[in-house]
Design a protein that fits this description.
6 strands, 40% strand, single chain, Thiol Ester Dehydrase, Chain A, 26% helix, alpha+beta, globular
């Protein structure tokens, strides 16, 4: 799938609140998809940093797009496991976070992936691993 097809998939398949993250597909490789997550005031909690729920939703969404890209099109799927480690805060003044989802192994019914979420200077803000079941 090319970038335009992945962006269209994002607009068509995901729930409205996920689309409100305003993720933008930036690049792809054979086994990965990189998105940009713009930081908006609605993503920032009282501590002045982006809430973990926003970062996890972006990671999970990126994985769905990476799986679809790897499979050559969308296939219904569900997240079985999503393990996220938050390594440094994403401040409210950060413009965007780079979200790269990579497929580690794709089987007949399960897909294993990982996601890195990086600050504009390249520092790792969060890391996630995931298992998804193809339906």
């Amino acid at each position: 799938m090319d970038i335009a097809a992945l962006q269209a998939l994002y607009a068509e398949v995901f729930a409205e609140w996920v689309r409100e993250l305003e993720l933008e597909v930036r690049s792809t490789t054979d086994d990965s998809v990189t998105l940009a997550l713009p930081v908006r005031a609605r993503h920032v909690h009282a501590g002045g940093v982006v809430c973990g729920q926003t970062l996890m939703a972006a990671a999970d969404t990126a994985l769905v797009l990476a799986i679809s890209h790897k499979l050559g099109g969308f296939r219904p799927q569900t997240t079985v496991q999503l393990q996220t480690s938050f390594l440094r805060p994403v401040g409210k003044d950060v413009a965007e976070v780079a979200v790269e989802a990579r497929i580690l192994k794709s089987g007949r019914s399960l897909v294993f992936g990982e996601v890195t979420l990086r600050l504009p200077d390249g520092q790792l803000a969060a890391h996630a691993t995931s298992t998804s079941a193809l339906l």
